[in-house]
Amino acid sequence: MNRRALSFVEVIIAMGILAMCMLPVMTMFGSSGRAVLKSQNLAFAVGLAHRISQHLFDAPYEAIVEVPLPGNAIAGGPDDGFFNPLLNDKTTGAGALRITQAQLPELWMFLRKYDFRYSLIVNNVNFATGDQMKCVGIIITWKEGGKDLLYKLYTYVPDL
Amino acid sequence: MDMNERKGVALFLVLGLAAVFVPVLLYLSQTGSSQVRLAVKYHEVHQSEAAAIAGTNSGLSRLRGNMTGLQQLTNLLIGEIAYDLTIQPTGTGLLTQELYHLFSKSAKGQHTFILMSDAEQMYPDPNPPVTVISHDTWNTIEPYDINLAADVTSMENLRGQDILSYEAVKNYEKSVSKAAYSSELMSKRSKLPTELQADWASIVSILESEKITF
Amino acid sequence: MYLTFRRNARGTTFVELLIGTTILALILGFVARWFFMQKEYQKRLTRISDIQNDFRRASWEMIQEVQMARTIIWPRINSDDSLRSDTKLVFKDFMGRIISYYHVPGTKEVRRCVIPNGPGDPVVNPAPIGRGIATMTFTATSPTNRVISYCMSTDGVFSLDAVYLMNAD
Known about the structure:
The complex is a heterotrimer. By secondary structure, chain A is of the alpha+beta class.
């Protein structure tokens, strides 16, 4: 039998090939990292949609109107009762803080970085004669890694 | 070093590298996917809650539309999520209104959300919409079946216990004067966490003004 | 009788050893650098996810209870109908008890206190309902006192949410 040992150089080359093969496995870090990042923004988007839905239940019925895509930006957006103004630790309206670069810079930067926006799709629903509700689709959009991402939540808002 | 020993050393080196790298890489990749799972679970939790609330609202809408009697409406869709709805008559009120228990349930993934409330449908009128008053909405995440009598009774009992506690509180508020009520609340101030003490007087003032009197 | 073939056996020279070691060092260096870079990246993302987890846990507990509450006592909107924020929330729960969620900045916790609506001493929950929350603000925006918004943040990670009270007394 021609038994031939492995030389040291062969061992080095084998280990080099093994290391090269590990590189695609290591790119799993990148993709799992992106998944985690997406989960960070997904959780945030879920909270935003839930916040809007809760405010809709308290809003005047006629004031619930469509906000078409691409939607309203949350950072620096209009006064809408959902996000702006956001905080006020004073006893008058003069202390109200909006999500702007001047007033809430950290939050503004985060929202602008991913361009978080919200849209509303509003449909009238009749379950029975003489009654109606609005079926509202709340859409949160944001940009991440060059991609446009979206989260949707539906709810019924009754005419009380 | 003879041939076999060299082979062994080489094999040992390669296996050693693999034994070190592979578990570490697998562990680090698991970290990422577990966080995604938690985020998705949070999303499921909110979706099921939103669907159950939508179900409650649709049930009230049906009652306003003059629907009467026992209704078990399963698998109705709001967006991509389904909810089950049960409208169960429980009797007639003093004003001849029809009394109902309204159940709305939604389940997504491992998460279940159920809302139960009272609904009073004012004397059903041939011309809807009928006035419907809903109150005492109560939630649970236990996976009850809203069409199974035993589960419905369990929910009614649990909710009933909480309502009895509320009745006791209401009776207490009715029985004391505003001054005594306010004094009792203010006496707790020193035992409150420091974060609550500063504004406690203002809070008591609101409670006193909204005390139940009848 | 066996014929023994001897290969032209030749040992490893010092130069070969040197070259081999250099190649090995380069490859391992490259792999190690990549490994530790990714480890740092994962560490940062895990920190963000842990914070998000803390937010979710606190959020879900609060939402469940406040959703069934009877009325918000504190904060309430200002007399000029503008919104009002505070680091504590006080409400009457489903059973009529007075409950407060309040933020403790020193320990970055959100804690819960039950204040009996009648005789009895306040009781603080032994465990906080939220940990690792650097700032927490509750905001009243509605004259109906049926919606409470809240905002949490820690190290540049945020959570914006709200709760609508389904019961109204």
